[in-house]
Structure formats: C-alpha cells, structure tokens
C-alpha cells in the first residue's frame, strides 16, 4: 500500500526534528572566555599585595616592641633576683645569729616545746628579731611581691607576642596569596605588555634643588635607583616603599617610623600644592609612599618585579615634611 506523499513528507519532518532535538542534547556549550586582563588590572593586583605588606610591616614593628619589653622585664627580674637572694641570705644569717645569741631552747621547733619557760624565752627571741629586723623583713616582702608581679607581666607580654605573631603570619600568607594572584594576571598579558609594565624609569639626568637634610635624603634615595623591590626590604640590596623612606632620612640623621602611615604622621602635613624636594608623599590609604624630587617627580620603590625608580605624582594625594 502506498502512503500519500503529504503524509510521507510530514513523517520526514517529524523524524528530522527528533534527530535535531536528540543531537542538541549532546552539543557541548561554548567555552566561556576568561575576562580580559589589562595592565591596569595587574597594577591594582600588585598594589593590593603591597598594601598587605605595609600591614605586615606594622605588625612586625609591634612584635619587635613587644620583644623589647620582654627583654626589659626579663632584665629587671634578673636584677631583682640578685637583690632578693642577697636579702634572703642576710635574713638567714640574722636568724642563725639570733639562734646563737638567744637560742630558742633544745627543741627543734619552738611550737613543739613542752616547757612553758622555754617557749616564752624563745618567743621573746623571735619578737626581738622581728623588732631589730623589721625593715629588712619589709623590704624582703616587697621585693618578693615585685618579682611576682614582674613575672606575671612577663608572661602577659609573651602571650601578646605569640598572638601578634600568629596574626602577622596569617597576614603574610594573605600577602603572598595576593602576590601570586598578581603574578598570574601579569602572565596573562602579552610579552610586550609585560615588558612595558615591568620596566622602570631610571632616568636621573636632571637636577634636584634641595639643601640640608632633604638634599642628603634625596641623594641616598636616588643612589638606590635600579635596586629591586623586596617585601619588607630595608636595604641594602632590596627595598619596599617605606623601608626606602626610613633609610633615606636616617642617612640625613632623621629617625622616622618604619611604616607609611606613621611616617606621614611623624612629619608636618602640607598641601600637595606646597611640595618641596624631600617631602614624603603617600597614597590616601597609606599603602604606598615615595619622596618628592620637584617638577612633579617622585623617587619610590614601586612593587615586586620592578626596581627603585622615578615616577610621577599620579596617585599620591597626601604629603608630610620631615627633618
């Protein structure tokens, strides 16, 4: 029996549609392209790691201060023990002498004496000792109490150090993770983009008009141009931003703190429009700083993968004058 042509065509359409539907079930979805990374994205990623580096620096400074306190307290305890042992020895000798001068009786223990007369005689001797050695006994008691308090303080500071070290280690791990993420984003750029991004401006063919301490600080910072950026670096072969500022001003005989925020706070805040060579300039969030050279130029330690270089004032919004 021959089917009508119309019915045959309809069946063909249904079969084709079914095959298309079945085939569609096995079609793999199109791959989603990764978001494009720009050089600006990479710089932001590195900056996040550097911001964490400054936090680690501050925690390290606090840990050093706590360790100094621990050392001071330990020294006090050692010196106190010398006096304590001297006082204890003196009292021991006094008690022994008192026994010889006014023996408490033949019994080993005063309280164990069964002879009322011996007991009263011994008690009188103890009272005489307490009267003649009252000051020594009081000093001995105070020294003992002082040592006990200092030992408690020592344990407290050791506990604080252990806690702060734990926080610093966690923050350092976070910094290393951010750094790894930044390096991964850098690797996604083209070779030409990477070379350009990692190049440092080391052109120092210009004069800086400065005098006094600022001139010395600038000369030190400029001498480090070309040295690599290193997390936590304070020289002589690697620097982070605040480490460079600290050592540059130390060369000029000026002591400033280790970290960006405290460095700015240690100086006199000035408007950006009144900058002079030697002034420290920083980002508003205190995550990065450098030294102003004049004519819109700044010497700074930028980030890992780059070296100490000359840059513009772009990004710097806060300034302080030290020295």
State the gist of this model.
It is built from 8 helices and 6 strands, in the order H-H-H-H-H-H-H-H-E-E-E-E-E-E. The chain has 323 residues and is an alpha+beta fold. It is elongated, with a radius of gyration of 38 Å.
Characterization of this structure:
The protein has 323 residues and is of the alpha+beta class. The chain folds into two domains: 39-187, Helix Hairpins; 199-321, Alpha-Beta Complex (endopeptidase fold (from Nostoc punctiforme)), CATH 3.90.1720. 60% of the residues lie in helices and 7% in strands. The protein has eight helices and six strands. It has helices at residues 5-25, 39-101, 116-132, 134-187, 191-198, 212-223, 241-251, 260-266, and strands at residues 268-269, 280-282, 289-294, 297-300, 309-312, 318-321. A six-stranded antiparallel β-sheet has the order 1-6-2-3-4-5. The longest helix is centred in the N-terminal third of the chain and has 63 residues, at 39-101. The protein is elongated.
Count of discrete alpha- or pi-helical segments spanning 4 or more residues: 8
CATH class category of the largest domain: Mainly Alpha
Radius of gyration: 38 Å
- Average residue-wise pLDDT: 85
* Structure class: alpha+beta
Shape: elongated
Q: How many domains, as an integer?
A: 2
Q: What's the architecture of the largest domain in CATH terms?
A: Orthogonal Bundle
Largest sheet, strands/sense/barrel? 6 strands, antiparallel
Which percent range fits the helix content?
55-70%
How much of the sequence is in beta strands?
Answer: 5-15%
List low-pLDDT spans. Answer: 1-8, 13-22, 24-28, 104-108
